[in-house]
Amino acid sequence: MLRILFVLLILNSILNGFELKFSDNSVTISGNPIYDITSDVKYSEIKSSMKIMKTKEGYDIPFESYLVVLPSSGNYIVEKISFTTKEVVLDKKLKSEKDEVFTVIDKKNSFVQIADPVIAGGNRFVQVVIYPFDYNESTKILTVKENIQIELKIDYQNNINTLSNRSSRSNSVSRILDKTVSGLPKDRTLTSNRGTYVFVYPDEVEQYIDYYKDWKNSLGYEVI
C-alpha cells in the first residue's frame, strides 16, 4: 500500500533552568542552574544537562550558552547583575583529565561573556555565556551562583558586523536558527522558495524515510 507522508514541525526551546525575557532594547536572563553532585570511591562529579567546559586544570564544569537575537546594529552589554552564592563541600575532589585536543573555554574571571555579533542567512545574533560554577581544588569547595538576574541592554555604538538593509534573508537558514536563536519573532513568515517534497513510498522502506525527511527539513524544504 502507498501512503503520503505529511510533516508538521513543532519548535520548542529548553533553557536549563533559566528564563529569557525580551523588551525593545534589552533582555533579562534569570533563574538557577540545574545540577546534582554524585561521588564514587575516588571522585565527585557535577551532573547537569548544561553544556560542559574543560578547564585548564582538566575539570569538567557546567556552563550555559545562548544565541540571542540582535537588531541590525549594536550589541548587548551588561547593565545589571545580581545573584546569591552557595558553597558546596564535595566529598571527593573532581576528576582532572587534561586534554590538549579538547577546546578549553577561557572564563577570564568573568561571570557573563558576550561575543561579537554574527550574521547568518540575513539574521543577526550573538552568543551569551554564563558561568555559574567555580571550583577550588585545594578546599574541594564548589561555589554555585543562584537566584541569578542578568540585565543586558543594547549598546548601539558597537558597529561590529552590522546588517545592511540590502541583506537578504535565507529561509533555509532562518528555519534552522528558529530552533537555536532566542528572541526571533515566532509569527514571522518564511516563504518557501526551495520547493516542496512529497514522499510516496512502499511500507517496507518506512523505517528509512525519517532520516531523509529530517535532512530535507533542516535544509529548509517543506515535506508533505
Give a verbal description of the structure.
With about 220 residues, the chain is mainly beta. About 10% of the residues lie in helices and about 40% in strands. It has two helices and 17 strands. Strands 6, 7, 9, 10, 11 and 14 form a six-stranded mixed sheet that branches. It is flat. The N terminus is likely disordered.
Distance between the termini: 17 Å
Poorly predicted ranges: 1-14, 188-193
The helix fraction, in percent, is under 10%
Global geometry? flat
Question: Could you spell the SSE succession in H and E letters?
Answer: EEEEEEEEEEEEEHEEEHE
> Class by helix and strand content?
mainly beta
Radius of gyration computed on alpha carbons: 22 Å
**What profile does the largest beta sheet have?**
6 strands, mixed
Mean pLDDT, all residues: 78
- What is the strand content? 35-45%
Q: What is the overall number of helices? A: 2
Per DSSP E runs of 2 or more residues, the count of β-strands stands at 17
Quickly describe the structure:
The protein is 9% helix and 41% strand.
Features of this protein?
six-stranded mixed β-sheet, mainly beta, five-stranded antiparallel β-sheet, 2 helices, flat, 224 residues, 17 strands, 9% helix, disordered N terminus
